[in-house]
Each structure stands twice: as structure tokens, then as C-alpha cells.
Amino acid sequence: MTDGSVTEVRPEGSGRTARQPEGLREQKKRRTREEIHRAALEMVLDDGLENVTVDQIAERVGISQRTFFNYFPNKEAAIIGLRPDAAEQYARTFLARPADEHAWDSVVQSVREALNRDPEQHRMRRAVLFRHPELMRGLLTIFHELRDAGAEALAARMEAQGIDPQEARRLAIVYINLSSTLLMSAAQLSHEEHTSSDEALDRVLTIIAMTG
């Protein structure tokens, strides 16, 4: 592709969504967004939330304030770091899973992938949120968007597996809400016990299995 767009192709019978490689323009935009996010996290950890400004973050990355606002509306959004299409991306994680995979297994795998995507950055984000819980308020609207998109995609997968649409919707809502519990619990255990994200998630899953 020469215009930097991404074309999605669903191979026949695969149950997966294949994505063509990003164009150079999209790669550059993604790298810039990640650099802004990482700089914001590092600066807040070093200096505190109230002592970091948009101008300082932009200077750290080597961009103008105007360029900063092309990516994030404020410093809080830069700290949280979610993409504008985060809900769509979240839905794709389920649509890309094997067609015959159990929905709960898809949820667990999506949590595991989220925890292991750039572990160092995830560690910094977790530390910032624990230190500045007021930032969690900014996640509420995003969380609802992610939840709705994820539940819709997961329900569609279960319907394709022959589950009644109403039951699929009900199960999808429960599974998606449980995924948030998995993610937050594993993140907290990993932070408090200084273990890897995988170990923390496995411990959470073991506890859930024991209570069942």
C-alpha cells in the first residue's frame, strides 16, 4: 500500500483477520505516539504529575506543541497512552483468534497479550496509575467503549460457533467484565510481588479456579 492505509483480509475458513503491514507513514505516526507516551510516563515518574507540562513532554520528544496535540488532547491522555481506535483494536483481538477457540480462552489470551505488550512500558504505566489514582477517572469512558466493542466481537464469535445470540451476548458481557478483573488483579500482583505478568496472571487464574 502506498497511502499508509491498512487492508484487512479474512482468509476463507481461517476465522482470523489478517492485516497487511503498516505503511511508512503509519509506522512513523505509531512510533511518535509511543515516544510521546513513554516520555510522559518517564517524566511523571521522575517529577510528579503536577510538575509535568505538555510543553515539557513535547520538548523531550523533540516535537512542537502543535504536533503533540495531533496525537493527544492533553497530558493525561498522553500518560494513559491509548490510541483513538483502541476500541476497534480491542475488538480485532477477538476476531483474530482461532474460530474454534472457546470464548473464555480468547479472553485470557487477550489479557496475557496486553500484559506482555512492552512489559517495561506497562510497568511504568502501572506505577504511574498507582501513584496518581486520579488518572483512573480518565479511563472510565475509554473502558466503557472497550467493553462494548469487545463484548460485541466476542458475542459474534460465539454466535458463529452455534451459540444462541441472546446467550452469546450474555456470556460475552460477563467474560469481558471478568477480563478487566483479570488484568487489574494480575497487574497489581505483579507490582506488589515483583513477579512477571505471566506468573501473576497464572496465579489469578488459579485462585479463580479454586473458588469455582
UniProtKB/TrEMBL annotation:
Domain HTH tetR-type: 30-90
Cross-referenced InterPro entries: DNA-bd_HTH_TetR-type_CS, Homeodomain-like_sf, HTH-type_TetR-like_transc_reg, HTH_TetR
GO terms assigned for molecular function: DNA-binding transcription factor activity; transcription cis-regulatory region binding
Stretches for region Disordered: 1-32
Pfam family, one: TetR_N
PANTHER family: HTH-TYPE TRANSCRIPTIONAL REGULATOR RUTR, MYCOFACTOCIN BIOSYNTHESIS TRANSCRIPTIONAL REGULATOR MFTR-RELATED
Name this protein carries in UniProt: HTH tetR-type domain-containing protein
